[in-house]
């Protein structure tokens, strides 16, 4: 979830992003699977990525610390009959999940405090089944929120070390100036990642 450094105004954020399509990193990851499996969606929000997974027949564990997000997700009319959805209301650093075919974290991991990030990343890697993928974003050191307390920003070399031993299917660095869904100007420094466990 982007535009969430201050952890407030979530309903406004969900309303502003309600009609947006699933993230390109998720779609890139999904193209690598012959059949649906078990996906974990970290920082799922109200389902921008979780719903397309469910519609494609995936079983989804959706994790978010905002109860409003999970309420909105469970109430979505486009979930479809028989959607295999489990929700967990917790910070993803504190949540537990089983071995998975896909861990998706769209614009969510930068919200992990720097001191807790290594343990979270180790948990993500350990939970990937052979052939499983991680899809998501990390923020670079030139991001407009770099230095904000409670967030993680990384150098490119640090990110490459995090991905060591995984098959990198996408690693794209982006810098741009844009307006956030809440209408604020921001400089983005983003790494878009899809990586597979061999």
Shape: globular
- Beta-strand residue percentage: 25-35%
Number of helices: 6
Helix content: 10-25%
Q: Could you walk me through the main structural features you see in this protein, from its secondary elements to its overall organization?
A:
- The protein is of the alpha/beta class and 198 residues long.
- It has a single domain, classed as Vaccinia Virus protein VP39 (Rossmann fold, 3-Layer(aba) Sandwich), CATH 3.40.50.
- The chain has helices at residues 10-17, 24-30, 50-55, 67-74, 117-127, 156-162, and strands spanning 38-42, 59-64, 85-89, 100-105, 128-140, 153-154, 166-179, 185-197.
- Strands 1, 2, 3, 4, 5, 6, 7 and 8 form an 8-stranded mixed β-sheet that branches.
- Mean pLDDT is 92; it is low at 1-8.
Brief digest:
The chain is an alpha/beta fold and 198 residues long. It contains 6 helices and 8 strands; from the N terminus they run ααβαβαββαββαββ. β4 (100-105), α5 and β5 form a beta-alpha-beta unit.
Layout: helices, strands, pairs:
Elements: H1 10-17, H2 24-30, E1 38-42, H3 50-55, E2 59-64, H4 67-74, E3 85-89, E4 100-105, H5 117-127, E5 128-140, E6 153-154, H6 156-162, E7 166-179, E8 185-197
Parallel strand pairs: 1-2, 1-4, 2-3, 4-5, 5-6
Antiparallel strand pairs: 5-8, 7-8
List keywords for this structure.
198 residues; 8 strands; 6 helices; disordered N terminus; 24% helix; eight-stranded mixed sheet; Rossmann fold; alpha/beta
């Amino acid at each position: 979830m982007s535009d969430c450094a201050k952890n407030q105004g979530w309903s406004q954020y969900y309303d502003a992003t309600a009609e947006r399509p699933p993230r390109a990193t998720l779609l890139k990851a999904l193209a690598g699977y012959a059949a649906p499996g078990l996906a974990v969606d970290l920082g799922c929000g109200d389902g921008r990525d979780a719903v397309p997974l469910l519609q494609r027949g995936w079983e989804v564990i959706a994790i978010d610390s905002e109860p409003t997000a999970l309420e909105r997700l469970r109430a979505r009319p486009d979930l479809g009959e028989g959607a295999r959805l489990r929700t967990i209301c917790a910070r993803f650093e504190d949540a537990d999940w089983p071995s998975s075919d896909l861990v998706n974290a769209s614009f969510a991991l930068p919200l992990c405090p720097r001191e807790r990030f290594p343990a979270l990343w180790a948990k993500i890697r350990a939970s990937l089944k052979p052939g499983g993928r991680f899809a998501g974003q990390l923020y670079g050191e030139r991001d407009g929120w770099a230095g904000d307390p409670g967030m993680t920003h990384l150098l490119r070399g640090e990110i490459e070390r995090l991905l060591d031993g995984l098959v990198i299917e996408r690693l794209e660095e982006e810098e741009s100036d844009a307006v956030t869904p809440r209408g604020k100007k921001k400089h983005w420094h983003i790494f878009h990642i899809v990586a597979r466990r061999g």
